[in-house]
Amino acid sequence: MVLVVSRLPLPLEIFLQGWDNATIAGAVVYIKKELTLDASVEGLVVAMSLIGATLVTTCSGSIADSLGRRPMLIMSSMLYFLSGLIMLWSPNVYVLLIARLLDGFGDRASVYSGSTIYI
């Protein structure tokens, strides 16, 4: 039972990335219409979260080692929540791109810090 509970956070955090990809895939139709995006900017809006996730993956382990795993998990949760609020009220595509980048930072930083707390 302990092994099952200790392995639970990692699939849940990976689920967040999949959930994010699925929601942006459905929302991009309305975003494109609302902000009048061309195809290249539309692709950038979709990919910006993955770009942020890739950037933070390269350094999240060393940041978590220096700050600690729990503060890193709290920081990533706050980034994920803040990016959701910014995406909700983004007035233009540039703010939306920054929010999607923060979304990738918060989402991927939690994978490396959150999964090791419970193990």
TrEMBL record:
Residues 6-119 form the Major facilitator superfamily (MFS) profile domain. InterPro entries: MFS, MFS_dom, MFS_trans_sf, Myo-inositol_Transporter. It is found in: Membrane. It comes from the Eukaryota. Pfam families: MFS_1. Keywords: Membrane, Transmembrane, Transmembrane helix, Transport. It is a multi-pass membrane protein. Its main location: membrane. Gene3D superfamilies: MFS general substrate transporter like domains. The keyword Transmembrane applies. The chain crosses the membrane at residues 44-67, 79-102. Belongs to the major facilitator superfamily. Phosphate:H(+) symporter (TC 2.A.1.9) family. This is Monosaccharide-sensing protein 1. The gene is MSSP1.
